[in-house]
Structure of Metaxin-1:
Amino acid sequence: MATTSTLHIIDGDYGLVSFDVGCIESIFYARLKQIPLEIKFQNNLKSCALYNAPSWQSGDSTVEKFPNIMMQWKKTHGNLDEGLNPKEASETLALINLVTMKLFPVIEFLYWVDQRNSEEFTNRWFMKALPFPFNYSYTKRKRAEALQLVETLYPVDTDLDVVKDFITKTATQCLSTISTRLGKSKFFYGDNPQILDVVVYAHIAPLVKLPFPANDIPSLLSMWPNLTEFVKRIDAKYFSDVKREVKYLAVETTLRQNDDEVSYAAIFILVVSATSLVVGFAVKRGFLKLPSMF
């Protein structure tokens, strides 16, 4: 009987198995290779203090980051791409490099650098999903890493609007390339997902599923419907158990709607009160005469 190991990951939401790209890759790969795993979410202080996400724990050893985890799984469970010929293997490597080099910075920008997304969505979600005080340190660290990545890629440009234009062009070129390569096929190589499918799905699924307030970059996917269908196809076959309802911000959204209703009522009361005071003052000073009722 195979020994069950543990995969430590960031939780997911909105039908996404995890908010972290590396965690999505790890879970998807494990499901394809049918690796026996115990999934543990980073929802307590002990897990957050001892492990980064994703981390694979087997016995006394712990391996971090998906590329390293995948190398270990190749040794114990075989290569997911063993059926590819040399040309397909070479193409796979090139496309994986394209996606990780071009789309990962896009996701980091959307999550942490775009001010509206960060303040109204991403930061609020992680503050709810992760335990205190780790939620503060995690969001601060991730934003700093994302800003450092953007500064490294675009050292000359300090205007984030200009950087966003470059990011958008980069995303457009990358999405167009992988959409053309996928074409009308179910997956990139035959009827079963390979490592390229894993990497592409992990980078595109957040763009498809997450409700970013500033969604001009994710909305680019409407130009390539086969990529959206690609995500839906994988969801139906490999992630049908992932719940679609909102976990962490649903209650807050309801409360905010209630607050809006209260605010409208308060504004109405204030307007009526202010009007009454003005009319009363005008009548008292003789500026306004009300008609006698008798």
User: Anything to note?
Assistant: The chain is about 60% helix and 5% strand.
